[in-house]
Design brief:
The chain has about 230 residues and is α/β, with parallel strands linked by helices. The chain contains nine helices and five strands, in the order βαβαβααβαβαααα. The radius of gyration is 17 Å and the shape is globular.
């Protein structure tokens, strides 16, 4: 029986990964992290979606220590979300160490469950500039977890080379476009669905959706071509 653990925030990307995983694995488990994030409503959103899709299990893990250590617009309400980059070239919504911690804990959880795969919705093609969303980082974590646990775990990133329009197409491919559009929370200001329309996360999501809705056939063809190339 194939088992998988999804790093699940209740946002567009992780929900799309969840939908795809339900079609590909016998048992789908999700893990959601509470790190005192600004948009903490995503945790409740994740709970609702996990129930909607009746997955095997959904674990909520308190990692609030991250909030104490990582200063970011997502961990401090006093820091406004900005569209401009910081002096180090990163958005002020970058939470240092977040995906290092999340993937490590998800890997340990997978080990406990006997799952050989962890899926995360990070993306390098159309992303927010976070270094821990890049393919080389994920490959390094994959290697570290294998070595550190002596366990044949694989981290998969189905969205890594998809742009946001293609991610919408993937949700539509599994007949869950409406769910992902109206029931997920991506907005940094905690507004479900189309969000506040102003923060960087909303801009990325909205631009991708508009591109998909205006060019459905072409975007879907692009998605299928990338899927075939990955299989080859």
């Amino acid at each position: 029986m194939s088992k998988v653990v999804i790093v699940f925030s209740g946002g567009q990307d992780s929900t799309t990964c969840l939908v795809q995983a339900l079609a590909e694995y016998d048992e789908v488990h999700a893990i959601t992290f509470d790190y005192g994030q600004r948009h903490s409503d995503e945790i409740e959103r994740a709970k609702l979606l996990a129930k909607k899709f009746t997955i095997a299990s959904h674990k909520i893990m308190d990692v609030s220590l991250l909030n104490e250590l990582a200063i970011s617009a997502l961990t401090r309400d006093s820091i406004p979300v900005s569209h401009t980059l910081m002096d180090n070239g990163l958005p002020n919504t970058f939470v240092p160490g977040r995906n290092i911690l999340f993937l490590t804990l998800a890997g340990i959880y997978a080990y406990q469950l006997g799952a050989k795969t962890v899926i995360t919705g990070v993306c390098e093609t159309d992303f927010s500039g976070y270094p821990d969303c890049r393919d080389d980082f994920v490959k390094a974590m994959d290697s570290a977890l294998k070595l550190g646990m002596g366990y044949p775990l694989t981290i998969k990133t189905p969205l890594m080379w998809l742009n946001k329009a293609e991610t919408w197409a993937l949700a539509d491919k599994y007949q869950e476009l409406e769910t992902v559009r109206y029931e997920t929370l991506t907005c940094y200001n905690g507004i479900v669905g189309d969000g506040c329309g102003d923060c960087p996360a909303c801009a990325l999501r909205s631009n991708g959706l508009n591109e998909y809705l205006n060019n459905k056939s072409a975007v879907m063809d692009s998605l299928e071509n990338k899927s075939r190339a990955e299989l080859d």
